Amino acid sequence: MTSLSRTRNRGLNDLQREIDRMFDRFLPSESQDNGDSSRQAVWAPRTDLVETEDAYRMHLDLPGVQKDDLTINYQDHQLTISGERASPQTGENEEYVRVERPFGHFYRSFPLPRTVNAEQIGASYESGVLTIHVPKTDAVKPRQIEIQ
Questions:
Q1: Which of 23, 29, 132, 135 could disulfide-link 117, Cβ–Cβ 3.0 to 4.6 Å?
Q2: Structural domain contains residue 2
Q3: What's the CA gap between 50 and 45, in Å, rounded?
Q4: Domain interval for residue 122
């Protein structure tokens, strides 16, 4: 029979936070574009990027994040997605043994080519997946040249 032993990793977690702070002094992580440098990203959502002839499409996995907790900005050819996932709560007589799902503030930034139609960028959110549609301008869409 296998027994599950609980190990308290509080000391290890404190050490990890201290190491993270040390690295942040030398290699600051990206912060939110609104100038609030004290609010640094804790995690970054997994993202898929798809390119078609007409557009780029991004899919960001954000389970547990509410639509109202998301911010999408486009400035200087940079698309920035940020938000926050609340920390999980436990019952009165419960304590986490293992936590693998990240929570807290997140931030992702993507440089976009100058050939996107910024006025037509759109986003939708369904089942924990944020989808951002970034259309290309007509100037870069491939066109068939007829041979005469």
A1: 135
A2: no
A3: 16
A4: 10-90+100-140
